[in-house]
């Protein structure tokens, strides 16, 4: 199994940390992982993206042109990466602030209204975990137990009270994701 | 019990520095390698091992702190990125001239000048042909994974002390910023024994005083010193060549690529093989000494070689020198911080070698 | 009354100086760099010296100053702006030459260039933005970082014993005979902006009169590096930066101001 993913959105949406938790989860299951972010001052308030690869084999290129899954969380990212999904691959998006929706017919498109859901749960910071939950529902490439372990590892101790809301957010994402 | 961590390349260098028993790290912030010092400062290695970490006022100061610290015989290092490494060239030349073991890490970004902060491999010439003045060489290690960022700190110190010479770890923004799984090894103790034949520890009655210098105004003596250095370099050429071959047994074509480009090429090879084109990879791990012989040995079996670098074509000169004129060698690369995708590499390979 | 009736030249109360380009500033919201740029350009406009002015941009957040300042400019290597400015001034002694530098650029890697340009009495103006941190590279410790202040390379706070003392560059430079004018200002309130602008004007007048080196330090905020929102950042600056870096003139007309 090899899963090649791009996650892209605005700076503060938690794009990079979502990728990190996925990568951690992979390690918990003895997989090979790679995580390569966009970096530098262009990240200030701008767009951020990260390429995450999970595989049973040694990973070759950490940067790619085509992906099995694209998780796209704003319009710029959707415009930029829709064409980068492999035919038959998965595109997951949140329609919050989206004016031009995905148009491709040769891929599977899923919608998760994570911004709404996290606002309703009164924890907008868990937005990215709702998205992660949705993704894992579509592609259960790692077990939830590994994800929770990954979460524990990547959340600093002083934020351990955030563990539960994050878990809840993942569950919520699993519930609300739907195929378009 | 294996200790596994998810780390950035830069963090792996820093953790490697602590575990390899580094005595002193001296550096100055610069993107994309600032995480090295940030990680060290957060880890408080002075509490873990007694290692000293100091933020210098510049790269010029950093490398001269390294020069001073290395003269004590301790394990010392610095890290920076391209513009900062350029500033260090004078100091590196002094370290080579004075035969001081030390470690320099360059997380390369696009140039020339202030350039960009995105990954690049355009510092190859500077690294392997002697970036500073005078006839000297650095052993240049090119990590292609986060694991190697960690491991090469250990290897780097071993080589530095074996040859009493600066060692350069030539990485780039991609390897520095990406995270991968790293298997950490045990803590290595810091140096406790200092070679009395050259280290500055304070003159005791049982030995002559030691002097660290690169100066000898007597030209004939300076030539002798140079001959001695050249002997060391010949020995390194004979003993330290490191490289990796992938799928070369049945290959019709060969990619030669190091560091992040080698990773990209691996994927390009896979895509090529899916189309029935048999490509292999030779990945130099030491850029100096360059794996000339292994390359020359495969060349006769090949129809062509593509040297892939994130530069205008620098390593290709060493590839050509290695294989001679009997085989076609081409270059493909992007510049200024652009990273080619595997598809792009393959497409350009096909344009050059397959489609006419 | 329609809005069009109001937009008339005679009703104009404020207009962006033409010496600022229309390019949106790349600074974080609330950052002092933008205000400092503006008043510097206003001074050049008011003195009507655009055609005689050459600026030197540093390496730091203001590395792209030349995108915003509508004058001839050159980008220097990190810390070398005073040397670059010296080169220009020696070739165009009758023109106005200024550098615009952060504290990392001016007081760490460029200390030697700064001190020697000042010591030569180089007839240039230095605008020195002291935000106590390396903003550009993600909030590392600067030579000016306060004791105990947390940055990404002093995550447990600056420890004077191992990391040295916060450097008062302006006081240090004021000691040098070649230095004619040194002042420390801020741009976090309208009153302070007016004062800072007057100081910049005074510095350029020093240059015009060929009297030697002039420097205007502007103690400024770095919301991103300090991890504070703009308003709390300014409050923090008043409470912590100003006591250590007191505002006011340090050297005027070649004479040290006592009671500093
Ligand atoms: C030779 C060299 N070393 C390091 C850097 C990285 N660098 C860029 S800006 C900067 C510090 C900027 O801080 P400061 O001058 O205080 O400006 P600010 O961003 O805070 O306005 C550093 C270290 C560089 N560009 N060149
Ligand atoms: S990082 Fe700091 S100095 Fe730079 S633009 Fe942002 S607030 Fe201003
Ligand atoms: Mg600063």
Could you characterize what this model shows?
The complex is a heterotrimer of chains A (180), B (356) and C (260). Chain A is α/β, with parallel strands linked by helices. Chain A has one domain (2-179): Pyruvate-ferredoxin Oxidoreductase, domain 3. Chain A contains six helices and seven strands, in the order E-H-E-E-E-H-E-E-H-H-H-H-E. Chain A has helices spanning 15-28, 75-81, 114-120, 127-138, 144-154, 163-176, and strands at residues 2-10, 32-37, 47-55, 67-72, 85-93, 108-111, 178-179. In chain A, helix 1 packs across helix 5 and helix 3 packs across helix 4. Chain A is globular and about 40 Å long. Chain B is of the alpha/beta class and 356 residues long. Chain B has helices at 9-19, 35-43, 45-48, 59-70, 82-97, 124-128, 146-163, 173-177, 219-239, 259-274, 292-298, 315-323, 342-353, and strands at residues 3-8, 24-27, 52-55, 76-80, 102-108, 139-141, 166-172, 179-184, 243-246, 253-256, 279-284, 286-288, 304-308, 329-332. Chain B is globular, with a radius of gyration of 21 Å. Chain C has 260 residues and is of the alpha/beta class. Chain C has eleven helices and ten strands. Chain C has helices spanning 3-6, 32-46, 65-68, 81-91, 103-109, 111-119, 160-163, 169-174, 190-208, 223-226, 230-244, and strands at residues 53-57, 72-75, 96-102, 125-130, 133-134, 140-141, 179-186, 213-219, 248-252, 255-256. The longest helix of chain C has 19 residues, at 190-208. Chain C has a single domain, classed as Rossmann fold (3-Layer(aba) Sandwich), CATH 3.40.50. Chain C starts with a helix and ends with a strand. Chain A binds chain B through residues 20, 23-24, 27, 32-37, 39-41, 59-66, 153, and chain B through 4, 6, 31-32, 117-118, 173-174, 177-181, 260, 263-270, 339, 341-344. Strand 2 (32-37) of chain A pairs antiparallel with strand 8 (179-184) of chain B, so a sheet runs across the interface. The structure holds thiamine diphosphate, iron/sulfur cluster and magnesium ion (MG). Thiamine diphosphate sits between chains C (59-62, 78, 102-105, 129, 131, 133-137, 142, 222) and B (28-30, 59, 83-84, 87).
Q: What are the SSEs and their pairings?
A:
The complex is a heterotrimer of chains A (180), B (356) and C (260).
Chain A: E1 2-10, H1 15-28, E2 32-37, E3 47-55, E4 67-72, H2 75-81, E5 85-93, E6 108-111, H3 114-120, H4 127-138, H5 144-154, H6 163-176, E7 178-179
Helix pairs in contact in A: 1-5, 3-4, 4-6
Chain B: E1 3-8, H1 9-19, E2 24-27, H2 35-43, H3 45-48, E3 52-55, H4 59-70, E4 76-80, H5 82-97, E5 102-108, H6 124-128, E6 139-141, H7 146-163, E7 166-172, H8 173-177, E8 179-184, H9 219-239, E9 243-246, E10 253-256, H10 259-274, E11 279-284, E12 286-288, H11 292-298, E13 304-308, H12 315-323, E14 329-332, H13 342-353
Parallel strand pairs in B: 2-3, 2-4, 4-5, 5-7, 6-7, 10-11, 10-13, 13-14
Antiparallel strand pairs in B: 1-8, 6-12, 9-11
Helix pairs in contact in B: 1-2, 1-7, 4-5, 10-13, 11-12
Chain C: H1 3-6, H2 32-46, E1 53-57, H3 65-68, E2 72-75, H4 81-91, E3 96-102, H5 103-109, H6 111-119, E4 125-130, E5 133-134, E6 140-141, H7 160-163, H8 169-174, E7 179-186, H9 190-208, E8 213-219, H10 223-226, H11 230-244, E9 248-252, E10 255-256
Parallel strand pairs in C: 1-2, 1-3, 3-4, 4-8, 7-8
Antiparallel strand pairs in C: 5-6, 7-9, 9-10
Thiamine diphosphate sits between chains C (59-62, 78, 102-105, 129, 131, 133-137, 142, 222) and B (28-30, 59, 83-84, 87).
